[in-house]
Hints:
two-stranded antiparallel sheet; four-stranded parallel beta sheet; about 30% helix; about 130 residues; alpha/beta
Amino acid sequence: MNVGIYIYDQAEVLDFSGPFEVFSTASRVCKTDNLFNTFLVSENGKTVKARGGYNINPAYGFHDVPPIDVLIVVGGVHTQEIKKAYVIAWIKQKSASAKVIASVCTGVFLLAEAGVVTNHTVTTHWRI
């Protein structure tokens, strides 16, 4: 099962590191290395500067990402990300084919902008 975690500049480190660790550990504990193929994906596949200046190298960009079964959209400083029509369209497209869609914290605002979250009840951080 492919678990794609979408990251972007100023993403919260814990928001992508935590889910990455959960799915990779589940595969390890179950002694099935391919139970969850967990990877980070960014818009262009190039280095992302997360919060605190933490540089992350995603495995894929939009152009070469494999099919995603579980899509996770992380939180962070999303105010510029939400304005990118190409990003919002990609999230909408991948959400249509993913089996499970989730967000961490303020990542829900990107899902809402993509029309994935509409009248759902959600919880996020008070400081948007």
